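Quick question, first post here. What does this chain look like in 3D?
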Amino acid sequence: MTPPTPKQLARAAGPVLFALILAFGPSELTPVGLRTLAVTAWMILWLITEAVPIIATSLLPLALFPLLGIASSRDAAAPYGNELVFLFLGGFLLAAALETWQSHVRVAYRLVLAVGITGRRAVLGIMLATAFISAWISNTATAAMMYPIAMAMAALFPAGRAGDDTRTALMLGVAYAATLGGMATMIGSPPNLVVVSGIKELAGESVSFAQFMALGLPITLILVPTCWFLLVFVAFKATAGLGDNARDMLRARLDGLGPIRGGEARVLAIFSVTALAWFLRERKEFGTFSLPGLVDLFPRVSDSAIAVIAAVLLFLVSGTTKSGESRPLLTWPEARKIPWDVLLFFGGGLSLADAIEKHGLTTWLAGHLTGLAGMPPVVLYLGLAITVLVLSELASNLAVAAMMMPLCVALAKTLDQPPMVLMLVAGFAASTGFMLPVATPPNAILFGTGLISVRQMAKAGFLLDIVSVLVVVAVLTFLVPIVLGR
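> Answer (accepted):
Ran it through. Tokens below.
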């Protein structure tokens, strides 16, 4: 008889854990609260172990909440239509159009050529290109797009220790920059949207696209060059040079893309106007001077509405291909390739978070956190960030971010802290796992190339973990009072 696989064991463990909590769970919870806790544990186990596809786990609230009396079908389903889900949908569709018309490749080549292709500059160039693109496109998609470019460049380094070290720094640079770039904007990484939606649903507050970027962009701007320094000067002394062949190769590929025109020009125009609209949606106050925002003309317009308008335009506007064919900027077969399961994951997480809040689980959690009372805020933030970092090294950063949102609300109530601040700390910290291939999708993608060992990733990732946690806590401690008034 064939023994069960780890995934089969984890699949069975979910319902078993659910039953054990129902039978032996904490007595201080109400019956419906205990059932909510049991479903929460079941979902967390399946998310961490990836025992079933993420879409199946995301649908558990719709399946179980009505059966268990936790929520009606209508109440359980409502969070799946949250406006922030549609913000990410619009971002996904914009990314699909950029990829369809090869605009992302053009940006990557130009940035690498602008910075330089000799030795350490090559690593910096591809990291800057990766981080920039990842701020606007899913970090997973960015890593998948950039690693072939990195592999082509890596093949040009000479054999020997210097070449091997430079190759390793280059490949890790893509993985890390994809994660760090994704921290810059609300749509850059799935955990970011989990945080923003959690703040809205659990804390009753909101963070705009511009506000989030005012917090995330400084973190990215500090950590990308810091990461580059750690890779090429500390962890791996990347002293090898590329030679003139690399410049010729990149120039040839860039020339092969031709000038920006036709459909590509229109996609870039829609993308640029969308990004500008996100920045200008809210009124900007500069002392005595006030810059009107889109809300002054359209009081109910939101970041989600802007994203959906852009997505609809992609289907309506046509562009000319290099072969002279006129076609929509985005077709449905191309749109179908976006990660729909991630959108459902957000809905499932919001539905679960709503039940956790309604049935007293946050209050119950808060009662177990009173020992942290009296700690200085910065120490509390650092302890929270380190805890989330350790979890994100062992599990999906998306799952960790989702798990931490209700816990942060409970912690905030216990310590009389703004829940928004703790949720932001936990959210950014969820993207700081750099040691293991399982920590983030970009880590897994680059590890899959076979050019990086676990030992090499752990060596560089340990250093970056320490620095990134300190930077996240320092930047948020300083900027949140300025940007959010908390």
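The chain has a mean pLDDT of 83.
The two ends are 60 Å apart (CA to CA).
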